[in-house]
Write a structure and sequence with these properties.
By secondary structure, the chain is of the alpha/beta class. The protein has helices at 15-20, 38-51, 70-76, 85-101, 121-139, 153-163, 174-179, 185-192, 228-237, 253-271; strands at residues 4-9, 25-30, 54-60, 106-109, 143-147, 168-172, 196-201, 203-204, 218-219, 244-246. The chain binds magnesium ion.
């Protein structure tokens, strides 16, 4: 399983595109507005089986999220905005149910910026939501993975310990640590390795110095500051054996397909898979 996979999105990417990459594993992102009925799950299950794609994770995203810059992320993403907490909790539980219908044993999302101060009211609220998602997911035999990068690895580690649920894990995205300026990816991997259940292979450059609130720039895999060869080597060294899911966030379809294809090729070269 230490071989390329792909992070792809329902309603944006089609399975034919995923299949054309020649991968056997993937992670499926579910847009916040997508209807999740039994019929939709059944159709996905059939289509995935015929495409020969095994999902390792189903990702939840939420309506109204904005990743334009750090203040927008802080205001809109994940479990942090108080007004959308109840709706996003029930949506996450619905994504867990949907993943269970597909036979997938891990769900994930961005919970947003976890406050560094455990006394902050958002901290206790987010911790409670994460516990509720974990407990629901556990009933399906699923793990619930938090994406890295919106806070330093040590803050995330302490939060995970404080949530105190055995099925709470990490989806490690090395580029996010750079894009959000929260830490050097391999040092973060060393901190979080025992919790890492899945990974994104994404690349990017650090935010411009002196521009408050700016995010760094995402790049095609191998073209940014992650140092993907050393990252893959370190994943191997810490004992990670799952698929290496290429992620590319650009909206331009041709660019996405080209960069995902090149990313898969690069990871094949690095893993010998
Ligand atoms: Mg990611």
């Amino acid at each position: 399983m230490f071989e390329p996979g792909v992070m792809f999105w329902a309603e944006r990417d089609d399975l034919e595109m995923v299949r054309s990459l020649g991968v056997r594993y993937g992670q499926l992102g579910i847009p916040g507005g997508m209807r999740l009925t039994g019929a939709v799950a059944a159709a996905w299950k059939t289509a995935l089986a015929s495409a020969g794609i095994t999902l390792v994770t189903v990702f939840a995203a939420y309506e109204g999220e904005d990743y334009a810059d750090i203040p927008a992320v802080a205001r809109t993403v994940g479990f942090i905005p108080p007004d959308t907490r109840a709706g996003r909790l029930s949506r996450t539980l619905a994504v867990s149910d949907f993943a269970a219908e597909l036979g997938v044993d891990s769900i994930a999302c961005h919970v947003g910026f976890v406050p560094e101060d455990a006394e902050h009211p958002d901290y206790a609220a987010v911790r409670q939501m994460v516990r509720q998602v974990c407990d629901h997911a556990a009933r399906h035999g699923q793990s619930f993975a938090l994406e890295t990068g919106q806070e330093p690895a040590q803050v995330l580690l302490e939060f995970v310990r404080d949530v105190d649920r055995a099925n709470l894990r990490i989806n490690f995205d090395p580029a996010n640590l750079i894009l959000y300026g929260t830490g050097e990816p391999r040092a973060a991997l060393a901190t979080l390795a025992p919790l890492v259940i899945s990974v994104h292979c994404k690349d990017g450059d650090w935010p411009a110095a002196g521009v408050a609130g700016a995010l760094g720039m995402e790049r095609p895999l191998g073209k940014g500051s992650v140092g993907i060869a050393r990252f893959v080597e370190m994943l191997r060294k810490v004992g990670f054996r799952g698929p290496l899911n290429v992620e590319r966030e650009t909206e331009d379809r041709q660019e996405r397909i080209r960069d995902l294809t090149e990313g898969v090729r690069l990871l094949r070269a690095l893993t010998g898979a």
